[in-house]
Amino acid sequence: MTWTRYLPPLLMLCAVCCASTAFAKPGKCSIVPEAIESASEIRGLRVKRSVKCKLVDKSFVENYLRTVIKEKIPAQRIDGEGVVYKMLGLIPPNYDYVNGLVELYTSQLGGYYDPEQGYYAMASWLPSSMQMGIAVHELTHALQDQHFSLDDLLDHQAADSDELMARSALVEGDATAVMVDYSRKQGGQASIAQEESVAGIMMQSLAGSLVSGSGSESPAALRTLMMFPYVSGLNFAHALLKKRGYKSLDGAFTKLPQSTEQILHPDVYLSGSRGFRELEAPLPERAVLDSTQAVFSDRFGEFFISTLLGNWISPGQASKAASGWGGDRLALYRTGTNREILVWVTAWDSKSEANEFYESIAEAYRKRFNQNGLTSGRKLVFAETDFGRVEIEQNEAEVQITIGL
Fold it and tell me: Backbone phi, then psi, for 141, in 5-degree steps?
């Protein structure tokens, strides 16, 4: 994914287009020096340079997002991602992908830090009572940037979706932990590093997101992807904090997580195991292609698979079915008649894990297409759908999905 995964890095952390709004006069922005010093004290990263602040309104944010999309993300990448999401069933076929995401992130945005320009954008529409906590969070990003260079870390053109999501979870989980520790410190409580679990905090965050997004027309799956860096990122950060405090997070910025599997299962990251293997999506059979070069290619990872399955089966079943993930690669091809064909090969830790995913995606797609399909061994075919022929086939510890034949 390019910017859904990934608008958290683009919006909250790494919005990279130049803004023209004048820097805000003292007022709400007067809290910034105190906020960054508080973040610095908790995080253990010194302030190398001051951070300017500007107040922005929702109209500015929307225009800002559209500029980011136009200038920083290749159109072919965004178009391909939207097509793939619709073919897989992550989002409805008639969903306006780009405009919908702009609406979603504008509605959820509480502020952002721009590493290229070195300023903190404060949401002018939020009450003063909310500003300090958000400022501590966003100015933690400023400290991260000053020490670890967020622009390089979250380069959306240099990594697959799964890896970018994992990096975003490190960045957001770290900043969320600092924000929570700031709040706890104000109340005389110890750091979350002393807590056995942060499940309660994670559920509060998720519940708050569901409430704030309840009026949105955005698909639930996109809202789930948007929350991952904050909710699961906090759990990952907490697992590291319990080892050596924030020094452990410093180490994670030099040895970056490579997959959402490592975020969801911090023990995999801490063990030093990569946890997956690289795959190549094969060319689709029985198709005359415009080119053998894919127009879109990506690795989506465990969390994306869980989110996709969750459109049709229970969250618990979806999470369990995705937990045996061992790698994937998706490629989108175009035929000479301008049809799209999607090939997605997934690898699993064992044949039994592949069995579980096969059965879960089969159940999900039977509900999606409202038909049983035709079964032959470990191959399920939906001969006629709005996206053409759909095939799901298991071969030992791999499952391949082909759509559009």
Answer: -65, -35
